[in-house]
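My current task is to audit a protein record that another person submitted. My question to you is simply how this chain folds and whether the tokens agree. This is what I was given:
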Amino acid sequence: MSVDVVAGAADRRILDERGGTRAMTWIMAIMLFLTVLAAALGLGMVNAAGSLDRQLAGRLTVQIVTADAAQRDRDTQAVMTALNNMPAVKRAVPVDRARLDELLKPWLGKVSSDADVPIPTLIDVDMSVPSEESAMLVAKGVRAAATTARVDSQSRWLSPVASFMRTMIAGAAALVLLMALATTAVVLLAARAGLETHRDTIAILHMLGSTDVQVARLFQRRIALDTVIGGAIGAVAAMLVVWLIAREVNGLGSDLVGGAALTLRDWLILAALPLLFAIVATGAARVAVLRRLRVMQ
């Protein structure tokens, strides 16, 4: 007898089904909910890290540090002249003193706006060709123009942030992998439980001429269906949560946090996770059932 003849009745009962709701479906919904959240976190961190790299690549900050205001002005002028004559420099702009006062006020109070307080001059530099070699040449030229000048790379200031982002990306990837392994383990347990529960039914199918491969297909169909339905429920719920969080984050107006926004490609990847998990679950179920059937015979 062809397995298709008995599939309509048998595969609906091949796994536990109580009150029309299978535990397997809800387990997969929870698995995919957590997986999509972890994947969204990882993708957001990848986007944020890329945005940070683009913003800081080739950006330098020049500080003119001297207590003598007249000397500071002369050094600033000399450095600006040197920077404007460098082919590697695309743009050099001194930071406005009022802006510095606003930045320092939380720490120095009103003293920061006192003309007698020696505040270093800051110059933002954008390089035309971002590279370590170009940065070294710019730093050398700046120090030649003014011995009181210091050159700092903005990427160096935020290196702890970049390191944290890489850690978060690795953690999210590890969590997605662990969830895939946990899903596989759940499928194996469900398949074995189904085999033990329906041992007599499987024996009858064998007597009617069904092969192990045909019986395994019954489990594959059931598990694939449960995984797709449960995965879709969990993925949609997780994507809704991610969308709500993204809307709140966009309202913060932070360039760094805004860089973590998911793109269309990221949403498509998240939407494809239930299908990917269904394929993994189906393959695991097939292997587990075939091995178990050989032992049962």
